[in-house]
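Troubleshooting log. The previous structure file for this entry was overwritten by mistake, so regenerating from the original sequence record. Sequence copied from the archived sheet and checked twice against the printout by T.R.
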Amino acid sequence: MQIVLYQPEIPPNTGNIGRLCAATSTPLHLIKPLGFKLDDRHLKRAGLDYWGFVDCSIWEDWESFTSSLIPASKILLTTKNAKQSLYSYSFSGEELLVFGPEAKGLPEWMLNYYPSQLRIPIWSENVRSLNLANSAAVCLYESYRQLLFNN
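Regenerated output below.
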């Protein structure tokens, strides 16, 4: 499993996801442009002193990131408009969970190009999405629940 943040905008979200990745030994990929500087105090504060334990790669753009992947990699987009629920997907452990920028989500071209997409169910009509860091945690822990505790 790996987490990919495509053009993240809010430093505390990325910091919290960094802490999540440190706690689960999950690689983290940040795809530029970033909405903050990597030395941002909010990013560092949210990640606390765990940044040294995060296997974090920073990529100039989507193309340089995808060209580095091995063929067995499975890009899995997360979007509120996906038909398949996170809970009906069977994880293999080869997935790269891709999350879009907080304000606008993943771009249309990406959603059209990559058919593997998941959504986190939201039952309230008053809420359009979850916080990015919460979404990453829900998805990652569901994948590890399936992979580590259902055997």
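Residues 2-149 form a domain with the Alpha/beta knot fold (CATH 3.40.1280.10). Archived copy saved in two places this time.
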